[in-house]
Amino acid sequence: MRHIVKQLLFLILVTAQFAAASDEIVVGKGSSNLSIKPGTASECIVTSIERYKRYFLFRYDYEHNYYYLITQTVEVGEGCFEGNKPANVSLAAQKIDVRTGHVSNKTVWSFSTKGTSGEKAAHPLLNLYSIFYPGCCGASNTIKYFSLSSGKLIGASSLKPLILEIPNTTKVRYITVQDNNASDYMGKKAGAAAIFYSDGKNIKQELLITVPNTPKADCFLTRLNFAGKKDDERKHELWQHLTFNGISVIVELACAEVRDEVRVVVDIPIIEDKLSPQKATIKGLSNAKITDVTH
Asked: What is the spatial distance between Cα 209 and Cα 46, in angstroms, rounded to a whole number?
């Protein structure tokens, strides 16, 4: 009888120790907290998930002084695994009367996407929200840009966007390029790279660069700039023009072929407020192509 009791006590003790080791520990209260999951001897020592919410105001109508209350929700996990699991950033917009503090119950727009951090994009990226998703295991980093007016994706890139602007007007265009080795590829179709042309509220046009053996060949974006401009000149102000005609965009990719790395350089002119793949020139690979995949 004593032997049986000892065995039962031993089983209870082991079970309690295992439960204590595997139970979730939550530090903090409410929507901002850190969840800690201690592992067993055969698992990760510690896995943690950070969750938090932040808020800011966005003035979407300057004439009438109307604002959105933007709620940011971030969830990022870490442990003895590569990358972040989970990795999620969510945004939601509600109308707010800044004079009374009344917040509408209706959500104007919302979205959720992969990411480890997010913030209002800094000047000169006006009215945009940027989300960072780090590359893992050889993949390139991804920065996604969303409109704070519409909540829609307007582009993604591993390099800073190009900006076209006609001063003293509301006309602005953003150009981003994302290679197929990105941590979170946002292109409609697989290829070497996707090119996004946006007015800051929607994607007006999407082009696709394809090279032999893609999507199997890994391509990395190495250069994105305006023709005739330095690499660090990201913004082009057209003081003497009322259109975006006459500007060319240079995209350079380093693509790993079977034996050697191949540099692909694409020169794309802007005609009638559109990137023109028909007039584009491609150097590096004679059979590389660029097509419009907007629709």
From this structure: 43
DSSP for 72-136 reads: EEEEEEESSSSS-SSEEEEEEEEEE-TTT--EEEEEEEEEEEE-SEEEEPPTTSTTEEEEEE---
Q: Where are the domains of the chain?
A: 160-295
pLDDT digits (tens, 9 = 90+) for 43-81: 666 688 899 999 999 999 988 999 999 999 999 988 777
Q: What is the pTM of this model?
A: 0.84
Q: Regarding beta strands 172-179 and 193-198, do their DSSP bridges make them parallel or antiparallel, or are they unpaired?
A: antiparallel
Q: Which class for 171: exposed (0-12), middle (13-18), buried (19 or more C-beta within 10 A)?
A: middle
Sign of CA dihedral 122, 124, 125, 131: negative
At 14 the three-state DSSP class reads: helix
Tokens linked to 132: 């960072």
Q: Can you read off the two tokens belonging to residue 207? A: 């082009």
**Token output for 158:** 């591993």
What phi and psi, each to the nearest 5 degrees, are found at residue 5?
A: -60, -40
60 within 8 A of 70, measured Cβ to Cβ = no
Q: Where are the beta strands (DSSP E) in the chain?
A: 25-27, 33-38, 46-61, 66-78, 87-96, 103-114, 117-120, 128-133, 142-147, 153-157, 162-165, 172-179, 193-198, 203-210, 219-226, 235-237, 248-256, 261-269, 281-283, 289-292
pLDDT tens digit string along 208-230? Answer: 998 876 555 678 889 999 887 76
Beta-carbon contacts of residue 61 (< 8 Å; ≥ 6 apart): none
Give the number of other Cβ atoms within 10 Å of residue 218's Cβ. Answer: 19
**Contact (CB, 8 A) for 147 and 200:** yes
Centroid of chain to Cα 280:
27
